[in-house]
Design goal:
alpha+beta
């Protein structure tokens, strides 16, 4: 029997962020490469049921949430100025790696031992599994880690 890895609530949270558009946000984009949503599926080590994954979801200027595989959510992180600054830094810099990412139509959740990064622009959702083999992957991972470290310092 396969163990269920995440609950439907987690998948719903994650999908809602990735389906959100700049039109929904009333956000005028400067160009086709402007990243306005970033989602990072992060594997975690845990013996607790559904505790082996979390998702860092960033919506430009609006929200910073962490969704846990068990359906729990940590919200309101954007209220902290330092966390918001870390998010803005990620959005300003992340467009530099788009050329090394794959434009995808399917951004369904799947299991992996690597972080999975999804960056949304006017063109669509760009994807990269972060194996840290390339300079671009390491750069994107560093941007994500900066946000997570800032969150851990402020919680």
């Amino acid at each position: 029997m396969d163990e269920k890895r995440v609950v439907s609530k987690y998948l719903e949270y994650r999908e809602n962020v990735l389906k959100y558009t700049n039109t929904d946000m009333n956000l005028k984009l400067e160009n086709d490469e402007q990243v306005y949503i970033a989602v990072f599926d992060i594997p975690t080590e845990s013996g607790i049921l559904y505790g082996h994954t979390k998702t860092l979801a960033l919506v430009f200027g609006l929200n910073i949430h962490i969704y846990l595989g068990n359906g729990d959510a940590i919200v309101g992180l954007e209220k902290n100025r330092d966390i918001m600054n870390a998010m803005q830094s990620l959005f300003i810099s992340s467009s530099q790696v788009l050329q090394s990412m794959q434009l995808v139509d399917d951004y369904s959740y799947y299991e992996s031992s690597n972080v999975r990064a999804y960056l949304k622009t006017r063109r669509g959702v760009y994807f990269q599994e972060l194996t840290n083999k390339s300079r671009e992957e390491r750069f994107l991972n560093m941007l994500m880690e900066n946000v997570l470290i800032t969150i851990s310092k402020k919680m």
